[in-house]
Each structure stands twice: as C-alpha cells, then as structure tokens.
Amino acid sequence: MTRKEQKEERRKAILMTALTLFVTKGYYDTKITDIAEAVPMSTGLMFHYFESKEVLLEELVKMGAEGTKALSSGPAAQAAADLPADQYLKGFLQQMFSYAKEQPWVFNMFVLMGQVRRNGMPEEARRIAMDVNSIDFTAKLIRKGQKEGIFRKGDPVLLSRCFWASVQGIMEEMAIDKDMEVPDPEWLVAILRK
User: Fold this and answer.
1) Residue 131: count of CB within 10 angstroms of its CB
2) Which domain, by its residues, includes 173?
3) Among 59, 73, 80, 160, which residue has the fewest nearby CB atoms (within 10 Å)?
4) 194 domain residue, yes or no
5) Within this chain, do residues 73 and 139 fall inside the same structural domain, yes or no?
6) What is the pLDDT of residues 79-115, one digit of tens each?
7) What DSSP character marks residue 83?
8) Which of 144, 138, 140 has its CA nearest to residue 163?
C-alpha cells in the first residue's frame, strides 16, 4: 500500500469512527481525544487530517449530502422520468436498504444528518444538512404519481415529508438494532398509494 493509500485509509477510519461516536455519544459529548483513542492514533496526528471537530463534522455532513444527491441526479433522475413514480421509489428504497445492510455506516449517516439539522449544531454543518432536499424531488415524483392515478390525493410536499419521516425512522431503528430485518419497500410506498 502506498503512503497516499495509507493516508486515505486513515482518513476514512477517522471519519467512520467520528460518525459512530457522534451518533452514539452525541456531537457535543464526543471529544477529539475520544475519536483519536478509538481510531487509534495520537490527538496531534489527528489534527493533521482534520483541523477541528467542527471541520470533521462538516466533512461527514458533506458525505451525507453527496449520498442524498443520488436520489435526484444523473442516471437516477433519468430513471425517475422513465419509470412510474411508485416503481422508482420502491427500487430506490430497495437499493438504499441493500447498500445500507452491506455498509452499516449508512444507517448512522441518516441519524447524523437528522441530528445536524436541529438548532444548536455548528452553523456551517447545519447549513449543509439543511441544503439537502429530498422532499422537493420526491414531491415532484408524488405529483407525477398523482397524475398517473397511482398516488393518493393530497399535498405532495406533506406526503413527501411523511414518506421521508418514515424512512428516517426506519434508518434510525436499524442504526440501533443491527439485526433488524430490512422492511419491504412496498410498505413505505404504500403510504403514498391510493
């Protein structure tokens, strides 16, 4: 392994360790020394990777925001245009749950993104998290599904919020209970159906 690869591996270890600690202990109760000790590495060396705990949090939130863009950009956006809305959402959830089961840190990322959106969190991280907008994209899909006669009548934004609140709750439960079965995505899409 090259030095550059080693450095990237160490950086990933710091991020994943911080993510776990921020979710389990809370951002403000997690100290830089806790993260360094859990990696393990010296606190001084950790500052070569991230200049502060706040910068570390911002980097995690950027990762979460980037992952969320997968819902509405690139090939996913084209699939959303081509497929019936319910099939697109069901397929997206199947992929997301499957990936999260393979990469359990994804469950923690959902928890962290929810926490960072609350008042009292560092402002820049909160701003990045608040810029993530799955609600509007999903509301467009719901409007499409309503026109297709698939989804129930009602405010598409409110329906989207309820849909994502359910997904968020499931991801949080799965972060707590690693043995929890992945729910059938159809259950969540059924919230929107007629």
Assistant:
1) 10
2) 53-189
3) 73
4) no
5) yes
6) 777 899 999 999 999 999 999 989 989 999 999 999 9
7) S
8) 138
